[in-house]
């Protein structure tokens, strides 16, 4: 049943992505966070302690509710248990959605529509995009797909393999907390501290696993595995995040491009360390190569895990 659940969840994500007409747990988690934030801020005098409580309540509640739902479904009927497990596993994965949203940037550039590309990129990145040229737009799309191959694809799949749908859902709760309160500004510096730090911890292994998978998958995508390996070693830590640099370095090395550099946030230019060497210019071919890396890395992880389970069951 584990194999059926995992393979089925991956295939459903590939085929359907996140249909908007279906309820999504992340939306419910986001509303729960928004509901709890003002109450916990008032309840605790210490904002950092309030943030710790938010993390524990949101992640713990998500894990507990999903576990209870799965148990009830299995008790009702095995088919219901499989169905609920498949659904939770499916909506925790985001390969198809990541491809679809980033593809809007590429589609606009294919039509020569820089303005449309800037708008499309603004939906998936935090940087300002209104003055970016074509190469910078492509850099933004490549960086987003590379980084989120870890956060949105490999990490939830890793936790799905490790602890089933409940653990995958708890990971998504942690990731959602970080995206909502994990900012280094006056409002969230203390309150969001626990969520941001715990998200770093939760992504430590998946980020490095993603880089390894990209190194192994690169030759399957007609890209450079050697380049990916060398850039992970050299530039994997060239990032303000302790994790994001590893998948970005693997992608940059596999593609032979340079990522990082200047980005503008709220009118302020931020110079980020560069990742990779500019052996070829950033082009739509680089974006497409990053998407191939994402899918190939996910399939490689699933394939290795399934093979391991089959061998283990044989013994």
TrEMBL record:
Chain segments annotated as coiled-coil in the UniProt record: none
Record's subcellular location: Cell membrane
Involved pathway(s): Cofactor biosynthesis; adenosylcobalamin biosynthesis
The entry's keywords: Cell membrane, Cobalamin biosynthesis, Membrane, Transmembrane, Transmembrane helix
InterPro entries: Cobalamin_biosynth_CobD/CbiB
GO biological process assignments: cobalamin biosynthetic process
Membrane topology: Multi-pass membrane protein
Transmembrane spans: 49-70, 76-95, 157-174, 209-232
One Gene Ontology cellular component annotation held by this UniProt entry: plasma membrane
Predominant location: membrane
MF annotations from Gene Ontology: ABC-type vitamin B12 transporter activity; threonine-phosphate decarboxylase activity
Described function: Converts cobyric acid to cobinamide by the addition of aminopropanol on the F carboxylic group.
Cited PANTHER family: COBALAMIN BIOSYNTHESIS PROTEIN CBIB
Family per similarity comment: Belongs to the CobD/CbiB family.
Name of the protein this chain belongs to: Cobalamin biosynthesis protein CobD
Protein's organism: Geomesophilobacter sediminis
């Amino acid at each position: 049943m584990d194999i059926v659940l995992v393979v089925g969840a991956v295939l459903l994500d590939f085929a359907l992505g996140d249909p908007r007409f279906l309820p999504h747990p992340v939306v419910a988690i986001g509303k729960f966070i928004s509901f709890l934030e003002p109450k916990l801020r008032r309840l605790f005098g210490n904002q950092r302690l309030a943030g710790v409580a938010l993390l524990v309540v949101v992640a713990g509640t998500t894990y507990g509710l999903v576990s209870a739902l799965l148990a009830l479904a299995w008790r009702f009927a095995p088919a219901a248990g499989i169905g609920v497990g498949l659904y939770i596993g499916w909506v925790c994965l985001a390969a198809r959605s990541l491809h679809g949203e980033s593809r809007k940037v590429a589609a606009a550039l294919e039509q020569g529509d820089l303005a449309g590309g800037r708008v499309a990129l603004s939906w998936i990145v935090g940087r300002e995009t209104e003055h970016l040229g074509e190469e910078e737009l492509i850099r933004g799309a490549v960086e987003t797909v590379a980084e989120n191959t870890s956060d949105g694809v490999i990490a939830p799949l890793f936790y799905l393999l490790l602890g089933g749908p409940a653990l995958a859902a708890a990971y998504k709760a942690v990731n959602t907390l970080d995206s909502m309160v994990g900012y280094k500004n006056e409002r969230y510096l203390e309150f969001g501290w626990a969520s941001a730090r715990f998200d770093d911890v939760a992504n430590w292994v998946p980020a490095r696993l993603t880089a390894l998978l990209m190194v192994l998958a690169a030759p399957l995508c007609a890209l450079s595995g050697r380049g990916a390996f060398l850039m992970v070693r050299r530039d994997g830590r060239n990032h303000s995040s302790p994790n994001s640099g590893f998948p970005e370095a693997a992608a940059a090395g596999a593609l032979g491009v340079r990522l990082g550099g200047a980005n503008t946030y709220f009118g302020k230019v931020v110079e980020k360390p560069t990742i990779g060497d500019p052996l070829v210019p950033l082009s739509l071919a680089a974006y497409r190569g990053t998407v191939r890396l994402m899918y190939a890395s996910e399939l490689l992880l699933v394939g290795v895990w399934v093979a391991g389970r089959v061998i283990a069951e044989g013994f």
